[in-house]
Amino acid sequence: MKPLLLFVLLFSPASVAHSPECVCIKDPHPSAEKVKAERHQAFDKATAIFAGKVVALDAYKVTFQLEKRWKGDSSSAEVVLSTGAKPFFEGGPPLPKECSYHFNLGEAYLVYTYGPVEKMEANICLTQPIKSAADDENGLDQIKPHVTITPKSQ
Asked: How far apart are the C-alpha atoms of 106 and 56, rounded to whole Å?
């Protein structure tokens, strides 16, 4: 009986646990007050919030050329985020993090990050393509007006 139970626990779909950050539960019709309160809470918890274009992307990191910044390090016009991928074994291929946001090279996003600066990751529930982020940008500007980032000439 015990070997059967162990087999069921190891190989059943229920044993494939999804981390809590994989689940984005959103109210389909939130009030304006609720949206404002949730945006304030997200602002307070974020390590950095910015709008930027993906200029480099690999299995382990994504690099953004910033266009706007609401929160975060003001000394750089670029931000590098971790994808959360880890090698399966030393020198082996990267295993993607199950709950990471999937960016596309050359596209612009509004990004909320969390974690320590050297290992920041995108918040999958709040990050979105810039083309659909106008309301969020306006709401962030009400919390703290953005800083426009001027790329340094090369």
From this structure: 8
pLDDT (tens place) for every residue of the chain, 154 residues total: 444 433 333 333 333 334 455 778 888 889 999 999 999 999 999 999 999 999 999 988 999 999 999 999 888 899 999 887 776 666 666 665 667 788 999 999 999 999 998 889 999 889 999 999 999 999 999 999 999 998 765 4
The domains found in the chain, sorted by start residue, are: 17-146 (2.40.50.120)
Q: Look at residue 136 and give its three-state secondary structure.
A: helix
- Which two tokens mark 74? 């003001």
Asked if 43 contacts 71 with a C-beta cutoff of 8 angstroms, the reply is: yes
Please give the Cα distance from 41 to 37 (Å, whole number): 6
